[in-house]
Records
---
Amino acid sequence: MSARLPGYERWLGRGSLFSRCLELALKEGEGSRALWEAMEYTVLSGGKRFRPYLLHASVMAYGGDIEFAAEPSVAVELIHTYSLIHDDLPSMDDDDFRRGMPSNHKVFGEAMAILAGDALQSRAFETILDEGYVKRAGAYLASRLALELAKASGASGMAGGQALDMTGGQQDEEALAAMHDLKTGALISFTLRAGALIAGSQDLAGADRIGVLVGRAFQVRDDVLDATSTKEQLGKTPGKDAEQGKFTYVTAFGLEGAKDRLRNLLEMAEEEVKVLPGDGKALLAAIGLLRA
Amino acid sequence: MSARLPGYERWLGRGSLFSRCLELALKEGEGSRALWEAMEYTVLSGGKRFRPYLLHASVMAYGGDIEFAAEPSVAVELIHTYSLIHDDLPSMDDDDFRRGMPSNHKVFGEAMAILAGDALQSRAFETILDEGYVKRAGAYLASRLALELAKASGASGMAGGQALDMTGGQQDEEALAAMHDLKTGALISFTLRAGALIAGSQDLAGADRIGVLVGRAFQVRDDVLDATSTKEQLGKTPGKDAEQGKFTYVTAFGLEGAKDRLRNLLEMAEEEVKVLPGDGKALLAAIGLLRA
C-alpha cells in the first residue's frame, strides 16, 4: 500500500514522528504486563494505518502544518484498534481472525481483550492531550481535537454504529448508510475534520462531506471484498455477510451494483477534495486506494 | 448518605450543575436507542456519587472555585460506571447484580453492555472537553483534567488494576495494595488531583497521598462489607471473595485486622486533609463515611 501513496513513508514509516509517538503510547508502564501485551498485539499486527494516513493527507489538503498530525493520528489508530478488538468478541461479531492472525481474545482471553480495548481508548485521549502536544499545538487545538475524537468514538459515533449493526434490521440502503456513517464514517470524518482544524480552517462542513463519502466508499468496498476475497487476501474470515444473511451493498445490489455505487462515491469525494485550499495529492491518492 | 455530608445536596442534588450536566451527558443523541438506554440504566441506577462528591470536596479543601467541579465530576462518574458495567461481564467478575438491580448485561445482553461501557468512556471525555467547559475553565485546565482522567482510567490506572485482579496472584498485602491502588485508587486520586488543579495548586503529591489512602480505605471497607453484609445491604452478591478463595484484607488479616487497617488509613488521610489550605470539612466528612 505504502509505495503508491505520496508521503506515506515520511509520515508513518520508521523514524517518523507518528511511529515514535505510537511506540510511546504502547510503552509498558505500570500495571499488568499481560494487558500491555494484549494492547500491543493488535495495534502492531500490521494494519495499513489508513486513518493516520487520511489525517496527514487532510492536513496537507487544508494547507496545515504536518508537524501537528502525529498525535491525533496515533489517537485515531488506537481508537480504531480498540474497536476491532471489541467487535471481534464472541458476543459481538465473533471473529477468530483479524489481519491474518488470531483475534485478540483468542490469544489473551475475553477479559483481557475487553480491558485491552478499554485501555486503548484511554490511551488515545492520553496521547492527544499529552503535555508535549498541548505545548506544541496549544491547549485549545489539542482539547478540540480530543473532543472531536470523543464524539466520533461514542454513542453518536462509532460505538452507536456498532450498536445499530448488532441490533440489526438495516433492510434498505438508507438505514444501511446511516449505520455505516456512524460505525465507519464517524472516525474517518474525524480524520478529515482534524486536518481542517489543524490548518485553522472553518470549513468543517466540507470535511464532513468528504468524510461521509470516503466512509461509505470504504464500507461498500469492504462488502465487495467480503464477497470476492479469500481468507488470505482479507486477513479475516470472508463470506460471513452472505452466510449470516446480512443486508449489505452486495447482497442488495449485486456485485456490479455495489461497484457502481463505489465509483460514484469516490468521484464525488474527489470533486470535494479538488476545491480544498492546500495540496490534495495525498488525499486523492488515499481515495484512489478504495477503487475495487 | 447525603444527609450526613455537607454540601451534598447543593453540589449533586436536583437542580445542581452536576445533575444538569449528567442529564446532558445521557441525553439521547444519534445512533442506537438501545445503546443510550443501556448507558443510562447503570448511570442512573442509584450510585452514591462518591467520586463526584470527593471531587467537589477536594476543590473546597484546596480553596478552589466549586463552579468548575461539575463537568469533571460527571466525567469521573461516567468512567466509574463504565468500569462497573465491564467488570460485571461474564468473562470478568460475572456479577448478575449491581446496586440491587440486574447488571447491565443481564438486561441488555453482553454486546450492548460492552458498547455501553465503551460509549460511556467516550462520553466522559466529551463532557470534560465540552465547549462550554473549555470556555469557562479555559482550555489548559480542561485538557489537563482530561489528561489526568485518561491516565487514571487506562492501563497504568483503573484498567491495569482490573487486569491485575483478573490474572490474580495477589498473595501478600503489598501486591494486593498495588493492585487496588490502580483498580480503585487511581480514579479516587484523580478526584483529589482534580480539586488541586482546579484550585491552581501545585500540591499534587499531597493529593496523591490522600488519594492512595482513601482508595485503600475504600477497598478494605469493601472487603469488610463483602464479608459481613447481606445482598440487600450490598446491592450485589456478597461473600463472593471467600467463596472464590480470593486473597482479601479480611481473608488475610481477619475481620478485626482489616478493621484496624481501615482505621489507620482513615486517620492518616485525615491528617493530610487538615493541612490543606481551603475548607476541608466536606473532605473529612467523606473520609468519615468509610468507617466500617
---
Amino acid sequence: MITLEQCQAWDQADELAGLRQQFDLPEGTIYLDGNSLGALPRNALVRAQDVISREWGVDLINSWNKAGWWDLPTRLGDQLAPLVGAGEGEVVVTDTTSLNLFKVVANAVRIQQRRHPEKKIILAERDSFPTDLYMIQGFSEFLDQGYVLQLIDQPEDLEKAVTGDTAAVVLSHVNYRSGYLYDMQSVNELVHAQDALIIWDLCHSIGAVPMSLKESGADFAIGCTYKYLNGGPGSPAMLWAHPRHRADFWQPLSGWWGHARPFDMSTEYTADAGIRSFLCGTQPILSMSLVACGVDIFLQTDMQKIRRKSLALTDLFIQLVEQECSGQDLELVTPRDHKYRGSHVSFRHPQGYAAIQALIARGVIGDYREPEVMRFGVTPLYLGYRDIWHAVQHLKAVLHGREWDQEKFRVRGQVT
Amino acid sequence: MITLEQCQAWDQADELAGLRQQFDLPEGTIYLDGNSLGALPRNALVRAQDVISREWGVDLINSWNKAGWWDLPTRLGDQLAPLVGAGEGEVVVTDTTSLNLFKVVANAVRIQQRRHPEKKIILAERDSFPTDLYMIQGFSEFLDQGYVLQLIDQPEDLEKAVTGDTAAVVLSHVNYRSGYLYDMQSVNELVHAQDALIIWDLCHSIGAVPMSLKESGADFAIGCTYKYLNGGPGSPAMLWAHPRHRADFWQPLSGWWGHARPFDMSTEYTADAGIRSFLCGTQPILSMSLVACGVDIFLQTDMQKIRRKSLALTDLFIQLVEQECSGQDLELVTPRDHKYRGSHVSFRHPQGYAAIQALIARGVIGDYREPEVMRFGVTPLYLGYRDIWHAVQHLKAVLHGREWDQEKFRVRGQVT
C-alpha cells in the first residue's frame, strides 16, 4: 500500500522539487494538463514587459538588430537543441507545428521524387493528432502527383506497413491520446531499411522524454513549444532537419525570412543554405521571445533526471489508481512498459467526459480525448508525488460518488 | 514659406492630436517608421499582463473557451473589417502575410483551374515587397503545372499586361518603397474585364488609407497588422476573401483550426464553410491578443479623418523638403497626386543609406530601401505637424553638413 506519507517522503527526496518555484500555478489546483498547455514560468511576465516596453516601445525597429529579433528563430533553436539531441544550427523555432509538418513533408517528398520516384505512400497513424493527417491530405491534394496517405491502426502494424512503396513515414513520438512512446532508433532503422524517410512529430515528447534525433539517424522532426516546454499559448513551433539532407533542403513556403540574403531585396528567391531555409514570414516576436523562459528552466537540469521523475510519477499514478479505484471500470490505455511510455497517463472510462469535468470542478485539471479517454499529463518540473496522491483521491471521490452523473458535467463544450 | 509657427497652429487645430496620448513613444524621437513597425499602444502592456498572468497563468487551458482564444482570429478580423471595407465574418487574423498570400494565390489558381484552365500567368510587380514574389515562386514551383510569374515594371504597364492569359494579379495597394497607391476600384475592373482575379497586399495601406474591399469588388486581400495598425512586432497577419467566392474557398495549408468540426478529431479534413477555412495551426495567442490594442485606437476615429491628416502631413513633408533642402540632390519618388499617394514619402539621394543613419543618430527614425531610397512613414495617429517640421530641419542639417560622409554612418548593417 502506497500512503500519503510515502509520497511526502519522495517529495522531500526529489532533487527537482525546487524547480516548481519557477512557475506560477494557481492556488488549489493540481495541473495535469501541461501536455496541452504548459504552465506559466515566473520569468515570462518580466520578459514580456521588457520585450514590449523596451524592445518594441523604446528601441522600435532598431530591435531587429539590437535585440536580435532577426536571429531569434535560430537562437531559440540552438537553445532547445540539447533537449532533442540536435546540434547547433540544426533547429529553428518558427510558425506552427502544422505548417512545419507541411514543409518537412514537402522536403521529404522532394528528396524521394529524385531518389525513388516510384514511392508514393506517406504512412502515418490513424491515431495521429488529426492536424498531421489534415496537413498531409492538403499537401497531397495540392501536389496532385499521386501521393497517398496510408494509415496504420496501431504501432505493431508499422513493421509490415513500411514497404518499398513508402516514401515517408510521419509518426508521433508520443501518442497524444494513449501516451505510447515509439523507440525512435529502431523505427528509424526500420524505415530506412526500406529507403523511406522518417518525420517525427515531437509535440508530446519534447521536454518530456530524452531523445537523440541526430544520433538515432532521424530525418526530420517538428514539434510544439507550448506543451511540456511551457512557451505560452500557441508559441511558435520547432523544426529540425538532419544535416545530412542539407544539400537537399527545400520547402515551398519560401518567404523572405528563409532567403539567403533577404536585405538585397532581390526579386528572385534564393534559399538560405542551412536550417533558416525553413523560415518563411515575419514571426510573432512577443510570443516567440517567451519560448526562452520555459527552456531556461530545462537547462538547469537535464532530460535524464526529468525522465526518471516522469516515470516515477506516472508509475505512481497507475499504481495509486489501481490501489484506490479498483472496480471502477477504468481501463489503462497507456503502456506499462517504461520503454513505450511517454509522460502522460490515460484511462478509458465510459463516463470519461463527465468524470473529467467533475475532476476539473475539484481543481484537478486533466483533459478528455475522444473516445472515452481521460488524460493526465505529468510534468516533472512542477508536479510532485503528493500532487499525484491528491489527484487520485479526487478521482476516487468522483468515481465512488458517481459525480459524472450530474447534468452540469455532461454538457459537451469545446475541448482542446 | 511654411514656418514652425504655422505647423504649431495646425497641431492646435488637429482633431486627432489627442490620440498620440494613447501611444508610448520614446522621448526625443520623431518616429517616421510606423510603416515598418508601428509604435506601442499604451494599453498593450496591461493587455499582455492580463493574457500572461490571468488567461495563461490562472485559467490555463480553460482560456481556450473562457478567454475566447478559439475565436480570436475571427473576432479580431471582425474588429478590423471596417478599416478595410469588409463585412462581418469575412476577415481572419492568422499566420503571416507571406503564408496568407500563399493561401489566397492557391485559392485563386484553384478557381481559375476550373473556370479558365488555359490561364497560366500570375502577374505581379517587379517592385513588390520581395516576399510576395518569393511566395508566388515557391507556389508555382511546387504546383508544377506551368504557372508563370510575370512582372511589370511600373503601374502604367498594368493595363497592357493583364490579358486573357492572366489567371491572377497580385498587387501592393501601396508600394512599400515609392508609396504609390493604386486605385483599387479601377484595377479591380481592369483585371475582371480579362476574367482574372485580383489579390491585394495591404501591408502598406491597411490603417493608412481608406478602402472598400468588398464594394470595389476585389477578390482577395492579405496584409500585416504590425505596421500602421500597431499590433506589435510580427503580430499575425490578416486575410480577406470576397464572400462571392465562398463556395470555392480552398487552400492547401489545411490545419486543424480550419476544420469545420475540429473537436471531432476526425481523420478526414473537412474545411470550415467560411473564412475560418483559411486558418491552419495553433496561433501565437499573446502576440495575437495585442492586435486589438492597436485597432481599438482606430475605432475612436475613422479612416476618412486619418486620410485627411495623412495627406496634409505628407504634403507638408514634401513642401518643407522642397523649401528647406533645395539643391540637395533629392528626388521625390512618391506621387504628388493625392489619388496615387499612400502614407509615406520617399526621396532618392545618392547617399541615401548613410543619410538615413545620420538622421537616426539625430533621433529621426526613417528607413532606407535599396536603391538609394530614404523612406519616411507618416502615421497620423501619433505624428503632428511640428514633428514633420523638425524632421525636415534635421534632414536639412544632415545634407548641408554632409553628415553622410562620416564613416560610422556608411557601414552597412541589416535593415528591415
---
Amino acid sequence: MTNTQTFPLSYLHDFIVRVLTKLDIPEQDAHQAAEILTLSDLRGIDSHGIARLRTYVGLLNAGRINPHPEIKIVRQTASTATVDGDNGLGLVVGPFANEVAMQKAEEVGSGWVSVRNSNHYGIAGYYPLQALKRDLIGMSMTNASRIVTPLWGAQGMLGTNPIAIAFPGLHEPPIVIDMATSVVAFGKVEIQKRKNEPIPEGWAIDKSGHGTHSPDEMIDHGALLPLGTKKETGGHKGYCLASMVDILSCVLSGANWGPFAPPTAIDLPRSKEQVGKGLGHFFGAWQIEGFIDPAAFKKQIDHWIQVFRSTKPAPGTDGPIIPGDPERKQEAIRRKEGIPLLLPVVDDLRTVAQTVGVSF
Amino acid sequence: MTNTQTFPLSYLHDFIVRVLTKLDIPEQDAHQAAEILTLSDLRGIDSHGIARLRTYVGLLNAGRINPHPEIKIVRQTASTATVDGDNGLGLVVGPFANEVAMQKAEEVGSGWVSVRNSNHYGIAGYYPLQALKRDLIGMSMTNASRIVTPLWGAQGMLGTNPIAIAFPGLHEPPIVIDMATSVVAFGKVEIQKRKNEPIPEGWAIDKSGHGTHSPDEMIDHGALLPLGTKKETGGHKGYCLASMVDILSCVLSGANWGPFAPPTAIDLPRSKEQVGKGLGHFFGAWQIEGFIDPAAFKKQIDHWIQVFRSTKPAPGTDGPIIPGDPERKQEAIRRKEGIPLLLPVVDDLRTVAQTVGVSF
C-alpha cells in the first residue's frame, strides 16, 4: 500500500463540495453527492467513490448533466411513483426518489419508485442504508452502461445492474447486500489491468465472443459475463437478474434500457438511438411493522446471523461471513485511519482541482 | 424418450383432484392444486409437477399437512400483509396470499405479502403468471429444505430459494423469469443420478465440503453451491440472493428460516428446533399503470425482446434467448401432444392410486 496517499474523510467530503459548487451545483446537492461518494470510499468500494469525481466533472463541464434539475413525480399511486430526474446528477436524483419510496412506505406500508432521466447514482447500497435509519427495509437497483453480455451473446447489452437490499439487526449489525448481477463489477477488471495480471476464467469475453483472460481484450469491445458465467453453471440466471433490473429501472420509468443506456464515462460513445430519457433506477421500501413486530424481526435477524456464522466451514476457509461484513470492516478502519487513494486517483483529483479552479 | 408414457393434461388434472379430494381436501382446493402441478408439467419443469404428488400424499396421510386450513391475514397495511397458512397445502396457501398481493396492487399501486405456516407451493413462476392476467407485474419467492451451502460453508443451510417475476409484452409473449438462486435446482442432480452420469464442476460439495462430481456424494449430506459457485466467480452473490429470499419469506412472516425449514419430503428428518411456523413465501405485485401507461410499457417490452433477440451470437450458439422461451416452447408441444411422464413417476402414481383408493 505504498502507492496510496491517505486523506481524512472530511477533507475529501469538503473537496467534493467545493468542486461541485464551483460547477454551479447548489450547496445542499453538493453535500448530498459528497455524502454518497465518500460513503463508497469509506466502505472500500473505491471504484464508486471520489475516483469517479473526474467523470462527473467532465460530464458537467460538457453540459451533459443539468446542475439545476427540476426533479418531479410524473405519475403516482399511494404506493408507487415515477420520477423524472430532469437529467440531474444521479447522486441528487437518487436520494430524492428514495425519499419518495420511504415516505410512501411510512404512509401505506410500502413504496416503489421507478426513475428516468437520471445519471450515475453512486453505490446501490447507499439507498437501503438510508432506509435502515427509519426502520424500513430498503431496496435499490440501477441500469448502467452496456458492458455485460446476455448468456450466448457476444456483445455488451446490459449494465452491471446491481441489486441492493438491507435488513436491520437488534444487537448485530445489519445484513447489507449490494451486488452487481454480472460475475464481477468492471472495477475488478480495471484492477487486474493496473496490476498487469490476467483475469480469471469465467469473467469476460473478447470482441469475438470468446472467453478471455486479458483485461485489454475485455475492455476493447469485449464484455463481462452475467453471474453464473455459462449455461451449465447458471449464466442464464445472471442474465435474468440483469434483465429484471433493466426493466424495473428503465422500461417501467421510460429511461434508456439495455444497450441504449447513456455511458457514464465522457469518452465513451453515446447510442444514436434513444428509447427513453437518461439512465433509470428503481427504489423500494417496506415498513417492517406492516408485516411483523419490528423488535421481533430484529431479534430473529440477530439469531439468523449467529446461526449462519456458525455454519460448518468449507475446508481451507474460516466459514461463511454475513453480507455486509467486508464493507463494515473497511469502514471501521477507514473512519479511524482515513481514506487511502491510489496515486493515479490523487493525480486525477489534482487535475480536477486545476480545471475547476479550487485548491487541493 | 421410450422410457416415458404420455398422458392427456386433463386426465392428470382429474387424477390429482380425485386423489386430493379422497384425502379430504375440499374440491375447489384440489382443483387449485391440480392447476399448479399440471402447469409445471406443461412448462417442462417435471421436478415440480405431478411427480411431487406422492410427497404431498405422504405428508397428508401422515397428518403433517392440514387439509382444512383457516388461512388468515394476521397483520396488514394498505399495501402489505402477513398471511398465516394454518399448515395448509402450499398449493392452496400460495394462491390465497398471491391474491391478497394482487388485490392490494389494484387498490394502492402495489401489494406485498409474506407468508408463514405453509408448505411447498409448486413452481414459483405460477404466481407472476397469474398477475400477468390482471395487467400486474407479479413476483414470488419461497424458502425450501436446507440443501444449499452459503459460500465458504460445508453444509446445506438454505433452500434453492427461487425468485420469479414476469413482464407482459404487447404482441410478443411475456418475459417470464423463474430461477433457483443455487447454481442448479436439486432436480438436475437427480437427473444425473438417474442417468448414472457425473455432475459438472461447480454444482455441489460432498459432506466434507469438497467439490464433488458424484450425485450420490451430494445427496449424502453434501450440498448444492450458491449461484456463482466460488468467490472468484461471485458465489457470495448467490448466497446473498438466497439469504434475501429466506429473510423476506420467513423472518418477515415468522416462518422457519434457513436450516430450520421443514423438509418437503416425508423421509427427511425435521429440525428439532423450530424458529417459526412452517415454510415461508413472499409475494408481490405492482400495477403497471401506477408507473407508466400500460400500452406504452408493453410496446417497449416488445422492442426490448426484439433487440435482445438480435444480440450478436456467441461463437457456436444461436444467440441469446428471452427468459421464458424454453418453458413456452415446452408448453406449446405438451398442450398438443400431452404430458410425457417417466416410467418411475408413472409407477409412483400407480402406488398413490392404490394407497388412496382411486383408479389410475
